[in-house]
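Worked example (supplementary).
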Amino acid sequence: MFHLIFAESALELVPDEIRGHPAVRNQAQRSGKRPTEDILDGTFHHSAMKRLDNWEQRGRPDIIHMSLLVSQGSILNREGHLRTYIHTINNELIEVDPKTRLPRNLERFKGLISKLLLEGELKGRTEEAGTELLKLTKLMTIEKILEKIAPDKVYALDDRQTIMTFKKVLRSDGLGPKDLEKMNIALIVGAFPHGEFKINLSKLASKVFSIYGDTLELWTVVSNILIDAERALGLSGSD
Amino acid sequence: MFHLIFAESALELVPDEIRGHPAVRNQAQRSGKRPTEDILDGTFHHSAMKRLDNWEQRGRPDIIHMSLLVSQGSILNREGHLRTYIHTINNELIEVDPKTRLPRNLERFKGLISKLLLEGELKGRTEEAGTELLKLTKLMTIEKILEKIAPDKVYALDDRQTIMTFKKVLRSDGLGPKDLEKMNIALIVGAFPHGEFKINLSKLASKVFSIYGDTLELWTVVSNILIDAERALGLSGSD
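After joint prediction of all chains, the assembly is encoded as:
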């Protein structure tokens, strides 16, 4: 099984300290919500966000939305080999059920996440009744998430590391299709727009690598990685 | 060069025949536009759309939006090996400049396309002044688009065909990295939600194939194909 961890995701409710700001109040009014029920979003809250610590790494729900659409729609997920975790900037964990079909519309996705962060769970209409489409656990650091998954191998992606395909990373650890069928492999990617990880990747992962010599959109990174995992497992047509 | 053609894309202005429908009028009012300046979108116009011919293949701007974000962000495009064309259900051609950074927000994307369809061009702020970010040409069938591109090879993707990776398709035609550097390869994918192509793919393409045994999201197909093209060209880390 592959475990994809979106780390330090720029996904949170509007923090208390800016709920009175005009940009926040106006946007809440438009969406018919209280300010602190809204998801922080730079598209609407830019002027208010500048008051926040570390604001350039926050308020980008579109990054995680697009990347989740890519991961949930992947052949790796369709074939049952992927588990997806969102770790947020506030150390929450959101587990995404492989069968969850997320709204393609960002505003609806934000509505869903807002409900989840306020209420703690979202049960839904998948085949099995009572499945939690999205499950929230608070106070979960990356370390705790890794303890929970207990993977055999942990890899991480970051900028300015040795450039390798994920396929090559797996092969350099001697991992072939049969190993991958049995093993739990975790991969950490950052889901924030700018800057550096706060966590110490090289302490958590046995290998930190890049797939390209420049910054890519997160969804480009994710599709690249997942397709390599599919190919390594022999799922999506052998070469 | 790879030429990606999104065929029969479900992208159009609200057609005259439903401009008076309450669902259309309400949505136009909300966005401060005249009904016929709005992009047809099943999310908002569902009840009105049922009056249209062929309605199940129409009104899905989100499909082309997501897929363009994937193609524009791809390593193949970043490395200058991709040209992207949108053929619409109304036989318009929209050429997307490789440097165009599209809005991540669907509503803003729809605004841009509406402006383009009404005014015919969108010049913009890329490095070279005067570059057309998106260029519209009317009365362009797929046949005419292929005449304009004049590719050496045309391939197409469709459901229920032989399952092959794009890499394998290229290899089965004896095409290696050096050939691909020099050749123009066109690939046709359908950018509509349901049903069959109206064009006759097997007349236009030398090979029609599938990459998976079931329906996939278009963006999953696109990333799969583009990553194979990158790998075939030796761009994104050799195996």
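Two points are worth noting when inspecting this output. The interface with chain B takes residues 43, 62, 66, 69-70, 73-75, 78, 104-106, 163-165, 167-168, 211-212, 214, 216-217, 219-220, 223-224, 227, 236-239 of chain A (CB under 8 Å). The beta strands of chain A are 2-9, 82-88, 93-96, 121-123, 132-137, 153-157, 185-190, 207-209.
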